[in-house]
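Ligand-bound model needed. 3,4-dihydroxyphenylalanine.
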Amino acid sequence: MAPDSAAVEAIRVKYLGRKGLVSEIYSNLPNVPAEEKPLVGKNANILKNKVTQWLQEKGQTIEEQKRQQSSAEKRLDVTMPGAGATIGHRHILTQTVDDICRIFEGMGFVTFEGPEVETEFNNFSALNIPIDHPSRDAFDTFYVDVKDPDKKDRFLLLRSHTSPAQIRVMKKYTPPLAVIVPGKVYRPDAVDASHSFMFHQVEGLLVDEKVKFSDLKGLLTIFCQRLFGEEIKMRFRPHFFPFTEPSAEVDISCYICKGKGCSVCGRKGWLEILGSGMVHPKVFEAVGYPLKKYTGFAFGMGVERIAMLKYGINDIRLFFENDTRFSNQF
Ligand code: DAH
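Prediction:
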């Protein structure tokens, strides 16, 4: 039995081809003795017909086999388990922002959002960052090709921190107020494992009468314990920010090595996670609050940095590449 259409075709060529056996018999007929010619001719016809018939039958069988095979392939097996539809989920940065905001909301803060395109006044001047301050350098900020509607000689910019939202909140509301502001910020940094030209911050601001530095310390201690776990240790280090006085940076005991010292914390056992301080009187002045009436504190943290520490992520670029092998881990 011919196994496939190629073998069947070979048989057709062998018998019925132009140089095949049947035509060979026909072309040799003139050499056959006259009395045998009718018999040879008749048998040649019989052979030709048989081969033709056989080829037809085989051709049909092969066609039928092909049909059956393809319909078997197409057939739906309703007993097979279904392919589960994958459901999307919040990006790890969104989850981290939400976790941070929920903790502060639980302590009475209200979430506020400010625009990413800001005025130079809100981003710098009102925050007591003078015109000749190094961070005003055009290379340290993305300026936008749009004139500031308030100060026509100035251009708008992409906010380089979430702190300008403090100005917006204080211009709009009178104390007591407690807000938390998550959002994107931009800096013209070359991209590498720990830098990105766009990243996320969460800003906090609380203003009232008689707010003390110890209130800030207490609040941030509870925040760190809720975000990183009760056993986390903290320290406040004196620092400088133009918009707070006094200012402090907050370190937590290294989440990876638990304070023993590892490559993530540079063998120090401590990791810096946020900047904070008591709102500078110049900032209150810039928003038109009455002198000496209010005190308040502010703080700001980098979301990528917190997520990297919390989840042991060693390259900031992973957040923005949208490789599902990364994002599905969270
Ligand atoms: N805006 C600062 C930065 O981007 C972070 C910061 C520090 C915010 C101290 C604050 C603060 O509100 O009080 O580096």
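The radius of gyration is 40 Å.
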